[in-house]
Write a structure and sequence with these properties.
Elements: H1 3-17, H2 19-33, H3 35-45, E1 50-57, H4 69-78, E2 84-91, E3 94-100, E4 105-111, E5 116-122, H5 126-135, H6 144-173, H7 178-198
Antiparallel strand pairs: 1-5, 2-3, 3-4, 4-5
Length: 199
């Protein structure tokens, strides 16, 4: 088997293996760009995006500085909430815990001075499902499956780069058609550079 043959096979099978990821990132990018359409549709139909889950008295010590993940984890445990989560301070008197899985999301607001905890569940929307998959990654979550997802995202990114490299090599070997490849390559880079410069 020659290197060119191996390169073509690698390019072909990478495309097939990466197809679900290409579809997910490609389709979800459309929903990122047109999310306002779905928000406007909800407003027109009067459907609320968030539905109340509970509103209760609750007390927990929140440090002024430092990592808040331990506080978020304790709030979730005390209130029987599960999923991946992120914690951020909305204001000096409010702490938010955003809990999510692939199919559902819950937003918990802790009002520190009032010692009050409010939770709302977000209604499932397909655009949120796809954009959530697109944005998901990293290794901050403790459980195995989330860390495995982060590893797979890294592998997929490396696969994209290898797919590009094998495609460029195949183009370079097509001597009679190399001119149109230069047109496509330079056109892509120029358009990208113009938008970076102007935006």
């Amino acid at each position: 088997m020659t290197f060119s043959h191996l390169n073509r096979r690698t390019h072909l099978y990478l495309a097939m293996a990466l197809l679900p990821w290409f579809l997910m990132y490609g389709v979800s990018s459309l929903f990122f760009s047109h999310g306002q359409f779905f928000d406007d549709r909800d407003k027109a139909t009067g459907l609320p995006l968030w539905n109340p889950r509970f509103d209760r008295t609750y007390a927990i010590q929140v440090p002024d500085t430092g990592d808040l993940r331990a506080v978020g984890a304790r709030i979730m445990k005390d209130n029987e909430l599960t999923g991946s989560f992120g914690v951020y301070r909305q204001s000096p008197d409010q702490l938010n815990v955003y809990i999510y899985t692939s199919l559902r999301s819950t937003q918990v607001k802790y009002y520190i001075r009032e010692q009050r905890l409010v939770a709302e569940d977000r209604r499932f929307r397909f655009d949120h499902f796809l954009t959530g998959l697109h944005a998901r990654g990293g290794f901050e979550q403790a459980d195995f499956l989330n860390k495995l997802w982060g590893v797979l995202v890294d592998v997929v990114c490396l696969g994209f780069l290898l797919w590009i490299a094998t495609g460029l090599y195949m183009w370079w070997k097509l001597t009679p058609a190399r001119l149109w490849g230069w047109v496509a390559l330079l056109g892509g880079f120029c358009s990208f550079a113009v938008f970076l410069w102007r935006l």
